[in-house]
Design goal:
heterodimer; A: mainly beta; B: six-stranded mixed β-sheet; five-stranded antiparallel β-sheet
Amino acid sequence: DADVTQTPRNRITKTGKRIMLECSQTKGHDRMYWYRQDPGLGLRLIYYSFDVKDINKGEISDGYSVSRQAQAKFSLSLESAIPNQTALYFCATSESWGQGRIETQYFGPGTRLLVL
Amino acid sequence: RKEVEQDPGPFNVPEGATVAFNCTYSNSASQSFFWYRQDCRKEPKLLMSVYSSGNEDGRFTAQLNRASQYISLLIRDSKLSDSATYLCVVMLQLGGSQGNLIFGKGTKLSVKP
């Protein structure tokens, strides 16, 4: 079984709809992240969470919200989807190392979202 | 200046060739450096970390030049399976103990028979 899973894998929705993307991990990591990837723009950080009580905005948080329901679960919501939120969304996890060093991030398989 | 810059490519090389990618970063406070590999329509996966002394993993060699703020990845004896996009990744140290990864846009490699 995959260590980081995302649901749904693909989603088509309409402008103005609320949508939630879910991420679960079995790696036991404290840190979780949501990114979006657009052609020609690379990966951009939306939100990140270093533990259940810690939520932080990333580079492009406008239009998004998150919830860290448990150590293993981190969901991303689009309250009112718009077409320019069409993208590939990745969840990732990492283990917190001593002295604040972060090593490998492990990514989920991605969710392809199309907003019409 | 973008935080992490890479030549997008594509680099089209024959099997067996040696190919090198460079990446520059703008923030001198960057602490850690990585190369990730991303196959088409798949998630990124760590290829290797990059250390100041340089490091090698089989056919892959990574180098870091802090003075010039650039990172390189050398692939020797290219295989068809090396075809992918290679992401240069830099970690900034924010505050006392928290850091985030900054991803380059990636360099696309296509290895041909």
